[in-house]
From TrEMBL:
It comes from the Bacteria. Residues 23-277 form the EAL domain. It comes from Undibacterium terreum. It is found in: Cell membrane. The chain holds residues 713 to 991 of 995 of the full protein. This is PAS domain S-box-containing protein/diguanylate cyclase (GGDEF) domain-containing protein.
Length: 279
């Protein structure tokens, strides 16, 4: 019969059970992490072609009391599956707004923008716009300094309701960047309709720009697409001078990557900022 044999064996597969147990532990640890403030934002600088700092991307870190750093690649997928990404994501947005407020109060950091990753599950919450509007009001920041990074799949999954929300948030002043651009399935027709400010070239294309003709072609195409749609274009994962030169040569003038700095805790980011503003 259908339910006997293989399926039954597979269900009791000890290896699989171990995987499930680990997942359950990770899930309950994630809840504790949220309750006990084990998350931290790191900041990775974004620079222009003259090396000027234009802002940062906020990247989430989980600092576990025993296990140390846990990479977002490890816990974000589970946070998404369990829905915990929603409260975690609001914590990220709250923290980002509070930081922007502090930067706004100082002359030399007033113009920085902060990009925040928002996952599909969170953006699709029915009250996302309302919640974010409340946060903006409470923190009293200039909303034009906040940028939301969405992936193509987040936008295209539910294109009508997502576009409507993006329009509402754009009216409040918030900017949008399409993250990991080039890895999904955006069509020109959609791109033209979306209220985006920026395309972010995925680092998988940037990596081999200098020696892979296909990647070079894709990157050139993305840049000219962005330029033609009136969007600014930023490249992520820029690690070498050669990559930077290629990008500048092809009219991409904003960058993020290890060439400039790794993501840093706030203190480190602010030191970098000061050093760059003193020269
Ligand atoms: P992402 O949004 O594509 O973020 C960029 C990732 O590239 C970051 O990894 C960053 O540390 C890494 N990176 C930056 N420059 C370089 C470089 O030059 N070379 C290489 N090889 N890597 C570089 P990270 O911090 O591990 O984050 C991984 C992913 O986790 C992010 O990818 C994003 O999808 C997700 N994530 C991070 N923070 C959040 C968050 O607050 N909310 C949500 N929903 N997702 C987040
Ligand atoms: Ca991102
Ligand atoms: Ca990205
Ligand atoms: Ca990526």
């Amino acid at each position: 019969a259908k339910t006997s044999g293989r399926d039954a064996v597979r269900f009791f597969d000890p290896a699989m059970q171990a995987v499930l147990v680990v997942r359950m532990m990770l899930e309950s640890n994630l809840r504790v992490a949220l309750a006990q403030n084990q998350f931290k934002l790191y900041y990775q600088v974004q620079v222009d072609s003259k090396g000027g700092l234009i802002g940062a991307e906020a990247l989430l870190r989980w600092i576990h009391p025993d296990r140390g750093f846990i990479s977002p690649a490890e816990f974000i997928p589970l946070a998404e599956e369990t829905g915990l990404i929603v409260p975690i994501g609001y914590w990220v947005l709250e923290t980002a707004c509070a930081q922007l407020k502090k930067w706004e109060e100082k002359q030399d950091t007033r113009d920085l923008t902060l990009a925040v990753n928002v996952s599909a599950k969170q953006f699709q919450q029915i009250d996302f716009v309302q919640k974010l509007r409340g946060m903006l009001e409470r923190s009293a920041i200039n909303p034009t300094r906040l940028k939301i990074e969405l992936t193509e799949s987040t936008i295209l999954d539910n294109v009508d309701s997502t576009t409507a929300k993006m329009h509402e948030l754009r009216e409040l002043g918030i900017a949008f960047s399409m993250d990991d651009f080039g890895t999904g399935y955006s069509s020109l027709a959609y791109l033209q309709r979306l209220p985006l400010n920026q395309l972010k070239i995925d680092r998988s294309f940037v990596r081999d720009i200098s020696d892979d003709e296909n990647d070079a072609t894709i990157v050139r195409a993305i840049i000219s697409l962005g330029v033609n749609l009136g969007l600014n274009v930023i490249a992520e994962g820029v690690e070498t001078q050669a990559q930077r030169s290629f990008l500048i040569e092809h009219d991409c003038y904003a960058f993020q990557g290890y060439l400039f700095s790794k993501p840093l805790p706030l203190e480190g980011f602010q030191e970098l900022l000061q050093a760059s503003r003193q020269t």
